[in-house]
Amino acid sequence: MDNTQGKIRFGASSAPHKLKLIMLIVNRDKVEFYTDFLQDFEVNMQAVTMAHGTASTETLQLLGLEDTGKAVILGVIREDRAGEALDALSNKFRTIRGGSGIAWTIPLTSTIGVALYRFLSNNRQGVGTKWNTPTK
Known about the structure:
The protein has helices at residues 31-39, 57-63, 79-95, 114-120, and strands at 19-27, 46-52, 69-78, 101-107. The protein is α+β, with helices and mostly antiparallel strands.
């Protein structure tokens, strides 16, 4: 009797890449730039939500600023790419006009499902094959 029936094959065994949640707070008019920029670091899933800065009107006038509209960008990045991405973002925050912001990461401790993990970690090996179907 075959003991592999109903079990799932996961392909070549290798240590999985750890994942992190990367979060950015940037000006609203720079959202498209930063979401495109994050794709260079294999950030496959991103979500954007609008936010509002906390500075008072008096403070804004004193500093010569007008808009407090911000955006929060959330994405999932592999741990081995996170440091490189944060360094590149820090450089962009300093050099792009109106492109200042803040970025940080938080470790993710688990995901539900191999297919979701492979998508989030940009591991496309086995997509469209029998790697995630029960063996016969």
